[in-house]
Amino acid sequence: MPWAVILTVVCLCSLNLRDVPAREPDSAALSDTKGTAPADAAVGEVQVLEGMTWTEYNIRAVVRPGDEPLANLQPHLLSIFESLDHLYSNFIPTSEVSRFNASSSTEWIEVSRETAHLVSEALRYAADSDGAFDPTLAPLIRAWHFEQEADASDGRRTLPSEAALEELRKNVGYQHLEARLDPPGLKKGGAGLEINLSAIAKGTIVDRIALFLADRGYRDFMVQYGGEVVAKGQKPDGSPWSIAISRPQPDGVGVEAVVPLRDEAMATSGNYRNFFEVDGVRYSHTIDPKTGRPVTHGLASVTVFAPTCEQADACATILSVLGPERGLKWATDRNLAAWMLVPDAESADGSGFQAISTPAFESQFAQTLERISPPAESAGDRSIWPTVLLGGGVFAIALLGLALGTILSGRRLKGSCGGLAGMKDAQGHSICSSCTTPPEECADFRRQLARPPVTADAPETPTHPEE
Predict the structure, then answer these.
(1) pLDDT category of residue 307 using cuts at 50, 70 and 90
(2) 452: pLDDT strictly greater than 70
(3) What secondary structure, in 3-state letters, does the chain show?
(4) Which of 208-212, 214-218, 245-249, 263-267 has the lowest mean pLDDT?
(5) How far apart are CA 222 and CA 306, in angstroms?
(6) Which of 186, 203, 184, 182 minimizes the C-alpha distance to 55?
(7) What is the percentage of the chain residues whose pLDDT exceeds 90?
(8) Which long-range contacts (CB under 8 A, 24 or more apart) does 447-451 make?
């Protein structure tokens, strides 16, 4: 078989026999893990609603015969998202939070019962964490540019000066904020105090969506909104909902673990997506209220499990501020199920993560959480060029060896210009008649092939082309 054909077959085989990577479950969504359905498993099918508001949402529910199709609820769900957005958003000028922030009054300001309740809960978590959770960080968040894009002039972010941070911190502190439920209202201790509820609001929104689905008669469903999840009941096959925890990397496309969830809420917080870099220094979006600066500890991600998503969301923020050592103690003292990831420098490529967990997590999830190994380089990720270059190199070496062997033996190469003249086509004509190479070049090539071989004691004498 000619060398070119052999190498072509080898190259094609090497391309086709590559391993195909296993499909991963979607990040922060349901995996494809199947369970074994018990004999009395309720019939039904999983229907899905997906969309975007502040962030992506994913709602899945088991719909049984006679139930309202999940798609019919889309307008109602969007209405809930919109109504809560007009309460808690810092980006809508007419929201209750924005109106409170814009006011310089230090008297009680009337707000809805929902806003008063959420601020009251935020203050409770602030006191319990000694200020690691603080709903009054709005000026610092804005100063660190986490509510806006990079400066338009050069695409860079301007870091706040120490003097500016010191001035802003005079208007920061949960002790200067009050909330009451009857009548519902908020009160600031200084005219410059502003609030930001993003560290707890998403969890509250997920709880509201879950309550709405339950009121509409759904028993088995999963609500995911960003990194916050509520799971109720089970899938049609009787297995719990399988929730993927994202691998802490900037693109967020990998999966670090999959955990089964039933009648529980969870929230994942991390510093691997929302950050920026200036002069090689990475600045996280998580602000430490005590320093007024982004945290610098090594905690990459934390997942908290709790009865409500509001609690899981707030506690995940607290642990993100405290870091792995202080956070582990705080969560353990409160019997909180928490799973934290820190960079593992001893991993194979230095990009792996070490898990740290509380006793409550170990007793509840240690046997069921499944770690997902980083995927090996897949066929789609590997370039075909190494294979092509390798095949081409082998072909070139083989061709060079064949040519040298012919030259040294003084024989003509069949299949080259030195041998085509002796080969005939179907009509009996010389193959040379179909060649476009000028005859004089073929003659010159034959003369070179006919020359005696070069040896060490008889160096090659330069030849000159014929005039």
Answers:
(1) very high
(2) no
(3) CCHHHHHHHHHHHHHHCCCCCCCCCCCCCECCCCCCCCCCCCCCEEEEEEEECCCEEEEEEEECCCCCCHHHHHHHHHHHHHHHHHHHCCCCCCCHHHHHHHCCCCCCEECCHHHHHHHHHHHHHHHHCCCCCCCCCHHHHHHCCCCCCCCCCCCCCCCCCHHHHHHHHHHCCHHHEEEEECCEEEEECCCCCCCCCHHHHHHHHHHHHHHHHHHCCCCCEEEEECCEEEEECCCCCCCCEEEEEECCCCCCCCEEEEEEECCEEEEEEECCCCEEEECCEEEECCEECCCCEECCCCCCEEEEEECCHHHHHHHHHHHHHHHHHHHHHHHHHCCCEEEEEEEECCCCCCCEEEEEECHHHHHHHCCCCEECCCCCCCCCCCCCHHHHHHHHHHHHHHHHHHHHHHHHHCCCCCCCCCCHHHCECCCCCEHHHHCCCCHHHHHHHHHHHHCCCCECCECCCCCCCCC
(4) 245-249
(5) 15
(6) 203
(7) 50
(8) 449/406, 449/407, 449/410, 449/412, 449/413, 449/418, 450/410
Q: Which two tokens stand for residue 438?
A: 């000028």
Global pTM?
0.71
Answer yes or no: are the C-beta atoms of 242 and 30 closer than 8 Å: yes
d(CA 333, CA 452): 91
Of the listed ranges 160-164, 308-312, 393-397, the one predicted with least confidence: 393-397
Answer whether 88's CB lies under 8 Å from 197's CB.
yes
CA distances from 198 to 147, 201, 299 (A): 11, 5, 20
Query: Are 207 and 322 a contacting pair, CB within 8 Å?
Result: no
Q: Measured between alpha carbons, how far apart are the two ends of the chain, in Å?
A: 41
Query: Residue 418 has what pLDDT?
Result: 43
CB 364 within 8 A of CB 305: yes
Q: How far apart are CA 2 and CA 395, in angstroms?
A: 11
Q: Which residue has the higher pLDDT, 325 or 28?
A: 325
Q: Which of 250, 309, 315, 240 is nearest to 276 (CA)?
A: 250
Peptide linkage before 183 cis (omega within 30 of 0): yes
User: Looking at this protein, which amino acid is placed at residue 121?
Assistant: E
The answer to whether the beta carbons of residues 29 and 46 sit under 8 Å apart is: no
Q: How many CB atoms lie within 10 A of CB 64?
A: 15
For the chain, the average pLDDT equals 77
